[in-house]
Fold this protein.
Amino acid sequence: MLFAVSSMAAAEVKYVFFFLGDGMSTSQIQTTEAAMATAYAKSSNQSLGPEAGDLDAQYLLNAAAHLRFTQFPIMGMQTTYDAYSLNTDSASAGTAFACGIKTKSGMINMSPDQKEQYKSVAQLAHERGMKVGILTSVSIDHATPASYYASAASRSYYNSIGTQLANSGYEFFGGGGFVSPQKAEKSGDTNNDVYALLAQNGYTVLNDRSSILNLKTNPKSKVVAINPWLQDSSALPYHLDKVYYDNGNKNLTLSEMTAVAIANLEALDRKEGGKGFFIMVEGGKIDWACHANDAMAAMVDVTDFDAAVGQAIDFYNKHPNETLIVVTGDHETGGMSVGHATTAYKAYYDKMFGQKATFQYFTDNQWKAHKAKYATGYDYTRSDNLASNAEMVALLKDVFGLDYSSLNDYQKERLEDAYDQSMTGKNSNNNAANKLLYGGYEPITVTITHILNEIGGIGWTSYSHTGQPVPLFAKGENADTFVGFYDNTDIAKKLASVMGIAQSLPVLK
Ligand SMILES: [Zn+2]
């Protein structure tokens, strides 16, 4: 009897999912649902509202306009600042979620003075016999996934992070590849052969669609599943670009990768242990799209992230009393606003639907080819370089759905300045103006998305993260643990408690 009392605490949850939309806060969620409402109305040939620019509430309220996770019964809200900054980065936010401590931006699972290293909830769950899966749409050694298996003074010590991944013993890694698997790219990092270490430690590395999907019926005890085609920085491609990279259906979405991880880990757990699993899934490119101020790229990636949540919901429906699903973001990115001065109380999301590729795909492909063709002899002092270039005017229309002749003079002027800057690195603006207008991105591309987004009714105030609190959604066993307004460090403690981890966080390594 006494024995039973000592292990009484809250019922442990056997299967725990933690979904993290990087850079996803209320603006990213509401704009995506508004886009879904618009698409739903248009698909059934209904007018959007009584006047142009209206969006009738009946569409926003319709189930077709709802992300799966916003329908969860439990909601919380978290503050996101880190040890020294109101605006956290993904490394310090990841540390908060994984270890329950505040550290400084750029650092993973260490105290700001680098004297202490901490264990993550994933490591603690693994130590008590749970299987662990870490998935992301960006590189698998990126700051957010790294927070679950590594400690690093800098998030850019990719080789050291990859080395710690290979030594983690976790059962499943999936998503993008490694940034520096062979050697250090930055001084202070290590120089290990990560692939050799993975092989030595018994990992199978897969990077083709059929053998990754095959894990659903033939699970492996330790696996790293990497998407065949990687876009920027060893990441999965943006979901909006799927039509270009996925000729022949050779790739996997984050959602498909999540389904593979669930099946693989459940089968493995049934065979050995029966202690359940902890799966972390990051939608990492929502953040990258928002850094670049590309709303369509962000919104479409939010829907792919939501589809991954759908895989966990399917699992929950089979194991409702043993499963918990938590969905949140690590911070807002871009200072995205639901509304813009250009459109005031109106919104024209349908005008953004003409965008056929992300800023990244356009910059890497159409823009690159265009620049190579027209850069020679370019005179940036002319005021009509873009207006007089028929190919560029056609690209605006074909890739972004922007009709040049319908733009106002201020929008045309910004496009001319950006075009000059992208073509020659020079324009008539001063440096301060260029910094504010382009934020280090390809000037023409970021100007196109700014104009397209403001026409739709979405604004941007930053190219970085902002400090607004982030909502959290929970469903399943012990979901009510996540009710309320709390700090991001509390999330690690709540996760540890629902997984029956005996130690109280933070736990030193
Ligand atoms: Zn970011």
